[in-house]
């Protein structure tokens, strides 16, 4: 490009006239606000972690100038080192201790409900592995998860590969245990069949009603598939639970060529709310979130978030069981997740991540991002622990 006055002449002949904005107020930028908000976040836990690293991992070698660096990696750094729990959170060996944390991540490595591409039994491993990439701080949301909440990784449910009903019982017992402890359960799937068992686990420890916000390309509400309960069937069985009303099931992003007619008939019969991608386009993200929240929260006391990674356009999430083009762009879904998480949740699952089909961990990264964005939003909006009021005493 070459400049003529203040008009830039591009190589293809395009003209870009740069206008001046002398009165532009940069203090109105989100970037400016975020830059200054960081000042208010404490660094106490970070200091504690570095001191513990020296205590447990030995002071670094004599040539290391930074006195906070240990010989053995303990804690967040370096990101490529260490035993890989979710976000390097403490691994809780005795699950009876889980209630001393605000949030507990647990894996459900199960793909026995898969009807096409398998591999989601490796989903928890994939998400944990790429989670090593992240710091606990988000600039735009303005939160540091390490400072502003306590997080643990309680490991995986002992699933039974050849038996979906026994696996469901294990999941419900495990998720119920975490929920009843007071820790917010964040579930790493697994295929979507687990959605019935996760919701049942929570529902069995509350007398209150729960709505569900469900992001997916698929409706997942038929009774059976291939003669069994599969990853296409969780909401049929979940909404049979008395305190899980089907009218409070809001399904966002549904569409394409993989929505079985049986599921559509069931959604119609049970009066769920379905917002397609074209509904989202017409309403816009803000209004879509408002509508979803209104329908999900109507007459209930808590909302569960079920996030199927395949709601994102297939081009961004190759590592999934039933990829479908035409879904959300990453930026759209992250915005939507943040908008709906502002009112708090009683649990979240991220399902259908299949690392064997993934490329460069991109699908696992998207799943991770969905989780940390939701957690960051919950913290930023003062909703951490908001689910505790519905736990049966
Ligand atoms: Mn799906």
Automatic annotation (TrEMBL):
Keywords: Hydrolase, Metal-binding. It holds the Pfam family Arginase. PROSITE patterns: ARGINASE_1, ARGINASE_2. GO terms for biological process: putrescine biosynthetic process from arginine, via agmatine. The keyword Hydrolase applies. InterPro entries: Ureohydrolase, Ureohydrolase_dom_sf, Ureohydrolase_Mn_BS. It comes from the Bacteria. Belongs to the arginase family. Agmatinase subfamily. This is Agmatinase. The lineage of its organism: Bacteria, Pseudomonadati, Pseudomonadota, Acidithiobacillia, Acidithiobacillales.
